[in-house]
Specification:
- With about 270 residues, the protein is an alpha/beta fold.
- The chain has a single domain, classed as Divalent-metal-dependent TIM barrel enzymes (TIM Barrel, Alpha-Beta Barrel), CATH 3.20.20.150.
- The chain has helices at about 15-25, 45-55, 80-95, 115-130, 155-160, 175-180, 190-200, 235-245, 260-274, and strands at about 1-5, 65, 100-105, 110, 135-140, 150, 170-175, 205-210, 215, 225, 250-255.
- It starts with a strand and ends with a helix.
- Bound molecules: fe (iii) ion (2 copies) and zinc ion (ZN).
Amino acid sequence: MYIGCHLSASKGYKAMGNQAIELGANTFAFFTRNPRGGSAKEIVEKDVLSFLDIAEKEQFGKLVAHAPYTMNACAEKENIRQFAIEMLEDDLKRMEYTPGNYYNFHPGSHVGQGAEKGIEMIAEVLNMVLKPEQSTIVLLETMAGKGSEVGRNFEELREIIDRVELNSKLGVCFDTCHVWDGGYDVVNNLDGVLDEFDRVIGLHRLKAIHLNDSMNDIGSHKDRHQKIGEGHIGEAAMKRIIAHPALKDKPFILETPNDEAGYAREIAMIKSWL
Ligand code: FE
Ligand code: FE
Ligand code: ZN
């Protein structure tokens, strides 16, 4: 299986590759720039090449880079939206240093404009930034539906994808905490949820999993992650999720409240379940 967690990008790619190995991981996620700000670290070609060597030797799965939380492609304020476009364009250029990986982002928050308007704006931004020559697949993350988040159900993600011309460059990242908080019963009816995903979006779009337990009950729309097996999703359901035929070969990224040692333990625990 491919499993990893969020790593700090502050020391560069090679350092992330080595840290992943230390934690028992064979993929990882990282913020392409400061998650709450906008500044990006300069890419050093030699550092990237060292990382690519490590990734090949260790047979890493696809990386799942994460856009900053502050990016809002459907912001009402034009300057915030413009900032999102610039960040996306720059991030997608940077992603090509490590070709063929995933770039995940939160579709956005419509802040009172309504989901329909938000969906239109997000698609419009994707139509501006996606390029036929890019090797990166951009993932829309399934959201918990907190506040005015767009992507609170599979239908909203499908509506975005339908409006994007180069939608061969689009996929979906399935966040187990968000989907559960959004009202999908991955505990008692995982097959049913994945069938619905297939019917509405198509399982071929499901590229990566954010593996998180939830502090809250189904449909809470809260988005508070919990350690694997210690939340409302629980260990038995997590075991079914990582072994499900539709999911098992994809990269699983932990976004659980853990320090490094905690991630190493969690990764070892999940690997022991197989
Ligand atoms: Fe996320
Ligand atoms: Fe997530
Ligand atoms: Zn979350």
